[in-house]
């Protein structure tokens, strides 16, 4: 199986709460859409400093992390961050790797959104289906 990427939208969770309370307009919610590498070996969402700054996320604490090359260090966690994939979303913290080349969608947000990696098609899918797709031979759609 090759590398799997999927398009997700990242939003500042504090901005979302302020907009819900009427303290700021929806169009001012800081957000970005990215093509993230799906990495079931990463435990959470991984972003770099540029993405953290663009979203205006505050550092909440630090946590240990191990990079793919074996480097171990303490990294900042930032949030709250809403991750959206199609009609699914989850709010979590993101591990901030200062010079990361890509955003990584890790195991916890994948599980929280009920998503799986399909090794045959090399894409992310809903664990219980994305939507109901009818073929022309489906009895409810095709009448003689």
What does this structure look like?
By secondary structure, the chain is mainly beta. The chain has one domain: Acid Proteases (Cathepsin D, subunit A, domain 1), CATH 2.40.70.10. Helix content is 15%, strand content 42%. The strands form 2 sheets. Strands 1, 2, 3, 4, 5, 6 and 7 form a 7-stranded mixed sheet that branches. A two-stranded antiparallel sheet has the order 8-9.
Layout of helices and strands:
Blueprint: E1 5-12, H1 13-20, E2 31-38, E3 45-47, H2 49-55, E4 58-66, E5 72-85, E6 88-96, E7 104-105, H3 107-112, E8 115-118, E9 123-126
Parallel strand pairs: 2-7, 3-6
Antiparallel strand pairs: 1-2, 1-5, 4-5, 5-6, 8-9
Text of the CATH class: Mainly Beta
Enumerate the spans where pLDDT stays under 50 for 5 or more consecutive residues: 131-144
Mean pLDDT: 88
The helix/strand class is: mainly beta
Q: Taking Cα atoms only, what radius of gyration do you get, to the nearest Å?
A: 18 Å
Provide the helix percentage: 10-25%
| Strand and helix order | EHEEHEEEEHEE
Strand proportion: 35-45%
Total helical segments: 3
Q: How far apart lie the N and C ends?
A: 42 Å
Described by strand count, sense and barrel closure, the largest sheet is: 7 strands, mixed
Count of folded domains = 1
Assigned CATH superfamily: Acid Proteases
CATH architecture: Beta Barrel
The tally of beta strands, per DSSP, is 9
The best one-word shape is globular
Quaternary structure annotation: single chain
CATH fold category name? Cathepsin D, subunit A, domain 1
